[in-house]
Amino acid sequence: MTTANLSPVPLMPDSSLYADYFKGLRDGRLVAQTCTGCGALQWPPRELCGHCQSSTFEPVDVPTEGLVYTYSVMYRAFHRAFADKLPYGVVVVEVADGVRFIGRYAGPDPESIECGQRMEAVFDDLGPDSGSVAWRRAEDPAPVSP
Amino acid sequence: MVATLTDKAYIAGVAETEYVRGTPKSERQLILEASAAACRDAGIDPSTIDGIVMAWKDVPTNEDFIAALGIKDLRFHSHVHIGGASPVAAVVQAAAAIAAGLATRVLVPTGHNWFSRPVRLSSMEQTPGGVGNVPGAEIRNNLENPAGLLAAMQWYSLHANRWFHETKADPAGMETVALTTRRHAHLNSKAYMRDRELTSEQYRASPVLVKPFHLFDICLETDGAAAVLVVSEEEARHMNGRAVAIAGGAEGHAECPDDLSTRPNILDMGITKAASRAFDMAGVRHDDIDFAEIYDCFTFIVLRQLEEMGFCDRGEASDFVSGGRIALGGDMPVNTHGGLLSQAHGIGMNHVIEAVIQLRGEAGPAQVEDAHIGLVTGYGDFSDGSVVILHN
């Protein structure tokens, strides 16, 4: 196992399909793609538009908050990077019609995550420019800045 | 025109290796050995097969098969890559090749050393991208793995937790599936858990690994291989009278088949589409099914497949499986061999084999009385589905 795999940060940052997404995360934005052929919002990014088969897209910002569509809570770590974080949560948050982002849950009490809870994106909990997205419940008190 | 394969092809031979935890043999060797044994079970010389539909795995290659089995004239081969839905879909594809006249004796093998591989589905040492052979590598590596979502049981939990939210389904059905299939495994000498009792207390006391899955909601990791031989109607007529007919079958794929997160409705599955096609082709109704071997990598996915196939409504499967309905002696026994949960992880080929054994009347203490029509499902990757209906 290489150390590169130990950090919960993107594992294929060189993927051109995901370049705009990762650039957006570093800037505190969530970026999906809009097809220039038919205007469809597409996520996750793919080479062709699933509606019109165009291959040209523009990056588009989507809201950084939304509702939990589904989630998971882990009591076992499947990678050493998460061994000291148990139990930890993963949430799938719907930020726009049909557009859902998966991310780490970074708020308190992951065992109380439920579908329908409102979440806000957190971009810097692993440090500035970490290029990751996590989520916290909108209703929870905001974390105290260090 | 309704496409039909009904009674155009038969399963004439079945074989599986021992299911073990730890083997010195390679997957290739185990798969080749199971393949030769399936031919012998059908009473034919392995060198005479003329088709191979490889389920899920890339190896053995067609060259490996030709060399190992001494095949004289391989006329057709293909690979089916839809995870645990592959074996059933591969049987249907073999039947289609036979119905089209492309081949007459088609081997359908698979196998996997789930336990002995360096990367295990359940392992703490899971490496990103390490499960292998799953679609959507970019999605896994860029979106899921960084969030700590790496293992199959986590993918299934996304589906299960939404199911509970939308339908208020009763989780009791998960325990029913776990305990029922374990009792069936006690009747199967080939089952890894043949001697290991599982009580309700043990089930409930077992750790939750990923919400909502207790340890005993999750299938076994074993090493082994299995194969069946599919032959034409004319070939079957000249065999030993144990061939089982394929009444109908189909595969199906959900929207966004590589991404559970953005599927418009995560409860939609491949089998939602495949089941009605298979029932229509076979010309049977749900009431006609004498027993079912349902892909059971997790207890909850058995419940979900029963719902999506139309045995009951969404959210109602816990009621459906209650009262002994899916136990031997019940209205529709399920996973009479113990399944992936308590026999072994035979990638669901063990389900196909069990259905054939039942329809031959060779299931011994686990024999379903008056078994004439059996249904087998496969579930793979991110909800690919397959169904085959067999009869004697």
UniProtKB/TrEMBL annotation, chain A:
SUPFAM superfamilies: Nucleic acid-binding proteins
Gene3D superfamilies cross-referenced by the UniProt entry: 6.10.30.10
Domain ChsH2 C-terminal OB-fold: 60-124
Name of one Pfam family that matches: zf-ChsH2
Domain ChsH2 rubredoxin-like zinc ribbon: 22-58
Protein name: OB-fold protein
UniProtKB/TrEMBL annotation, chain B:
Superkingdom of this protein's organism: Bacteria
Signal peptide span: none
Pfam annotation, one family: Thiolase_C_1
Span of domain Thiolase C-terminal: 259-390
InterPro entries with a match to the protein in the record: Thiolase (IPR002155), Thiolase-like (IPR016039), Thiolase_C_2 (IPR055140)
Official protein name in the record: Lipid-transfer protein
